[in-house]
Amino acid sequence: MDMGCHVLDRIDYLFGPVVDVKSEVLRKGGDGEEEEGSDPLVEDYVSMNGRIGQCDWAVISSEGAIVECLWDFSPPDKNNEKNDEDELIITGTHGSLRMAGMGAGLPIEVLDVDGNVIETIEFEAPMHAAQPLIQSIVNELRGVDIDDEEERQQQHYLGKSPARAENAIRTSEVLDAILNSYYGGRHDEFWTRSESWPGLYICDD
After folding, report:
1. pLDDT tens sequence for the chain (205 residues)
2. What is the Rg, in whole angstroms, of the alpha carbon atoms belonging to the chain?
């Protein structure tokens, strides 16, 4: 879910908070069986659904809209090849938008109610995907504003940074709700038992 949080951030920013979260979290990869009483292996399959709650910041009024997400990083099985897909589809009453969910490598497609592409919106992705957002945070912290329109476009100027702590907290709470049944929630206090942490140990000789 280290990548899934970015999709949830985008949904929160555009439409509002994700509430009433239900999920299925699995480990489908075959890198060994869990021993009884051991910590769970890292998940590689997450399916969740919820709805958009009430807010006063949404770009599009969407309270009550359904949210469905699937993150599947599990390896393909022996009989079927797996197609890599990265899509965010926003469906309305008169059509839908289809774009990359976790990257900026695809154009935005506008589809009619029958799913036919009626317009493709091309754009030039920044050399560094996170640069515009990071720059907007730095500019706001430094009190910098850019008046020149050409320079605004060159720097992908966003004005006031859209990144707020409240948004990050809401996304973290959604992640907790998604993963709670698998990992057991934050009450587990994993930070108190370093022997169970995954990764490389660097020890003094």
Report:
1. 677 888 999 899 889 999 999 999 998 876 555 555 555 688 889 999 999 999 998 888 899 999 999 999 888 777 767 667 888 999 998 999 998 887 766 788 999 999 999 999 988 777 777 787 888 888 888 777 766 666 666 655 656 777 788 888 999 999 999 998 888 777 666 667 777 666 545 555 5
2. 20
Q: Which domain holds residue 102?
A: 85-124
Report the candidate in 193, 171, 122, 179 with the shortest Cα–Cα distance to residue 17. 171
pTM exceeds 0.85 for this model? no
Q: Are residues 26 and 42 in the same domain?
A: yes
Number of compact structural domains in the chain = 2
As a whole number of angstroms, the distance between CA 41 and CA 126 comes to: 36
Answer yes or no: is 186 within a domain.
no
174 domain residue, yes or no = yes
